[in-house]
Please model this.
Amino acid sequence: MIFGIQIIGVIFALFMTYLTFLYYKRGNYHLRDFGVWMFVWLSFICVVLSPTSFGGLLNPLKVSRLMVVVGTRPEIIKMSPVIRECERQGLDFFTLHTGQHYSHNMDGVFFEQLGLPDAGYNLDVGSGSHAEQTGKILSGVEGVLVKESPDVVLVEGDTNTVLAAALAASKLHIGVGHVEAGLRSFDKGMPEEVNRVLTDHCSDLLFAPTGGAYINLVSENIPKEKVFVTGNTVVDAVNRNLGIADGVVDVFGDLGVEPGEFFLFTLHRQENVDDGKRLGSILKGLELLSHEFGLRVVYPVHPRTRKMIEGFGFHINGMDLIEPVDYLRFLQLESRARLVLTDSGGVQEEACVLGVPCVTLREAAILRGFWSAHD
Model:
C-alpha cells in the first residue's frame, strides 16, 4: 500500500515537472507558476524525504515479523513500552528471553507485574564467564532465528545478550534494530562498552536516545539514514509504572521505613564485588554514611554480591540487607529515597528521571549521549 502511494507520488511529481517545462518553453513563466513549483517540490519532498523524516512511514527492512530479545532486568523494563506498542499496533512479534539473570525474583516477575506477554522462548543460560555466557546465547538465539525466520531482531542496551543476539542475526542476514544506540563511556575496559560499540556497528536501525548519542554514531561513520533519535524508553517505563506501583504495593510498610528517611543502595558489578579491598571500602563507607546522617541504608542485595560478602567474611553494620525486591517495589523505594547509591546503569537512569540524587559507584560514571536528554 505504502509503496503504491510512493509510485503514484513519483508519477505525479514527474507530470508536474513536465508542465513546468512547458510553461518555460512557451515563455509563460509568471507569478502564477509559483503554485506549480510548489506542487512539484512538495511532491518530491513527500516521496524522497519521507523515509528519513518519517521513519515509521516507510519500512526500509520490510518488516512483517519481529523478534524482541531481552535477558536482564533493565532490558525487560526498557523494552516494556516497545512491547506494549507492538501489541497496540497488532504487529506479528514474539519475545525471546535469554535468562541472563537467572533468578525468577530478579527477572521473570517483571513480565507478570508489567502485564507483558510471556516470552515465546527462554534460553535459561544463567551465569558464567563473558565468553561462556555470550557463546550460549549466540548458539541459542541462532537456533530460534533459523526456526522462526523473523525479519528484524530488536535488542536494547549493552549486555552480553544484546551483542550475542545482534551477531547471530547479522550473520544470518536478518535485520538488527538497536534501542538505546550510541551511548559511550569511551572506556574499553568496561565489557558493556565493547558490547554497545560492536552492536551498533552490526545494526541496521539505530534508535538513539538523544542528539548526543546520534553524534557519537555518525562520528563513527555509521550512515545517518540508519540513525533515529527516539528518546529513552526508560522515561516511558518509569512514568507509567510508578503510578501502578503506588496503587498496588506498599514497600515502606513491608520494610518498616519512612519515605524520604533512608538511603537506597545497590551493588553488583564485577569490578566492585570481586575485589575484596574495594568491596570492603564501599561497605565501610556506607556504614559511616549511615552513622553520620542517622538514616538507614536499605540494600536489596544481589545474590552474587551476597555470595562475595559472605566469602570475604565481611560483617555488615548500618545496613538492612533484604532479599531482591520486585520491580514495582524497587521503583517505589527509588522514588522516595533520600539518596540512591548504585553501580547500576539502569538505576542511574531511573533516579535521574525521578529527580532523586544519585551517587554512582563506578570509575566511568557517565555514558556520553544519555544525560543530555535530562539536562
